[in-house]
Structure formats: structure tokens, C-alpha cells
């Protein structure tokens, strides 16, 4: 595994909370999240739907509507504070320092604009490539993301391309200005399995060229095992565990991490022994962030479910952080392992 030195910190998120206006009040979707990304590092954020993964990512990109949401804490990207930046200040960072690849390229691309123009538009917002170089850069980018016949594709509309090709275009747009940080939110979920591996390889390829940091958001722990250096596990808006990928897969600690790992089907799994995590992620209004919220949905852990836990995760071994104390006693009722 490559070693990444500490002075290479690219993104430093500290006590980041994002709340959304729901009904008459603001409810936290993520609460006091601390996460760092170094140059050259692939950080995976995993957790079920509703854990807050995308909310964290879109906070870094400044994509939340300031009228409907509030962000507190600090997000420093390449030495610059993002929290509090709006409008033009934020557009300068978005696409320049950080580029985002979305799950659904068809929704993220403009259906009425040719591919080449969409890439050009991203370059026009920033001054990384002067205008006279932009047409060449479009072709170079489409080539780099493995699109055959780039001159032709530059003149096509999104609906004329396959899902895999559209995702390649999204990646070309995300990296058009050589961002230091690439955020990929479920980049392969909508694609065929055969295309998934190619797209992941492509993300790693563009990351290596620039020694960029990558935040990969995914449900797919198989993908995480393959490409992540570090894994952050999120549940109900909080981090519950963080460690190197190797450590997390070999020594998972938090009951939620162990439950997620146990619920991955393998070649030997039959439908009878596939583990199903009981219950579901709570609604925002029910999230009491001073608790270890996962315990509330584990019937046999109710004795600890209402216990207030330390806000910060504890370092249980070097660079391995876990929330609460329940991991010390947690077992599956059938004695199963994860
Ligand atoms: N704009 C919004 N307004 C209100 N609530 C929101 C908004 N965006 C997200 N939420 C809520 O915040 C919580 C976290 O959502 P988020 O999409 O970040 O989770 P996620 O872990 O990324 O899930 P998924 O994998 O489904 O994308 C959810 O309860 C969601 O309903």
C-alpha cells in the first residue's frame, strides 16, 4: 500500500454539520463530521442510503441551497475555507479545486447542449486553460477518458451516448480544470457490471496523473476493498468508524461496520444465511446525535441504545477510530462473524 505523508493534507473537514429546513425547523442530516483527505489518497465513505454521504460531498462542493440548509464547522480545501462561501466565490472552487462525478450522468448533463460545449462551459468558468487552447483540451479530455472518436462525440448530445459513455463524459467535465480533489458519488451504480470496472480504473488513472485526492461514495464494499486507501463508515449523519481499508476489512469494530460487512453476499452465501441488518436508518427528526444511533435498531443492544457517547471517535489502534463503546461487547446473536 502506498504511504501518504501527513503534510499532504488536501481537505480538512472539522465538525461539519449540515441541516435542512424541514417543516418549520432545521434538522441535522450530518452532525460534527471530521474527515481529512490527503493528496494521492482514495477515501471511501460507505453507509446505507440516508446516512448522509452525499450531503457531506455536496457541502464540499457548495451545492446546498443556502435558503434551505445551514452548514457549520470548517471545510478547508487546499488551504481555503469553504464554509461561508457563496455565489461566485464558491463557483471558483467548484470545478477548479474540486470536481464531482455524479451517479446519474443523464440528470447531471444538460440534455440540450452538445458534449463539447458542456466541457467548454466548465473551462470557461475558470482560467486554467486559455480560450484558444480549449478546443484541443476538449478532444484531449475525451481521449483521456477513453471515448473513441472524440471529435464526433464532442458534437453529440447526451442522449446519443450509452450510459458508460455518458459517465466518461461526466468524468471529463469533472477533471476539465485538473482539480486537486475528485468526488465520485456512486459513480458506477447506474452502470453494467462490465463497465463499472472500467470507470473505476479511469477514476484511478486520472487521480494518479495529478496526485489528486479522491472521495468515493458508495454502497459497494467490493469496490471499496479494491480501490480505497481509507474507509469512513457513516451512519445516521455521523461517522462511526474510520481506518485504512485493510484494517477495516480485517478488524472491523463498530457494530454497524460489522453488520454492513456481514450483509455482503459472497459466492457461498445462500438466501438463508444472508445477513439482513434489522430496522432502518432513522428519520432526521429522530436522530439524537449524542447517542450511538445504530444501537437503536439492534434489538439485542437496547441496554446501550440510550447511553450518551463521546462525541469524538476513540483511536482504538493507530489510525483506527471507532465511535462509542458498544463495539467492545457487540456480538451477533447467532455467534456469527464479520
Ligand atoms: N435537500 C434536502 N432537503 C431535505 N432533506 C434532505 C436533503 N438532502 C438530503 N436530505 C436528507 O438527508 C439525509 C441524508 O441524505 P443523503 O442523500 O446525504 O444520504 P446518502 O447516505 O448519500 O444516501 P444515498 O446513498 O441514498 O444517496 C436523508 O434523510 C435525506 O432525506
Automatic annotation (TrEMBL):
Superkingdom, natural source: Bacteria
Keywords (A to Z) from UniProt: ATP-binding, Cell inner membrane, Cell membrane, Membrane, Nucleotide-binding, Translocase, Transport
SUPFAM superfamilies attached to this UniProt entry: P-loop containing nucleoside triphosphate hydrolases
Annotated compartments: Cell membrane
Record-level GO BP terms: peptide transport
A Pfam family of this chain: oligo_HPY
Domain ABC transporter: 11-261
Gene Ontology, cellular component aspect: plasma membrane
CDD domains (alphabetical): ABC_NikE_OppD_transporters
Membrane topology of the entry: Peripheral membrane protein
GO molecular function: ATP binding; ATP hydrolysis activity
Key word Magnesium present: no
Family: Belongs to the ABC transporter superfamily.
Name of the protein this chain belongs to: ATP-binding cassette domain-containing protein
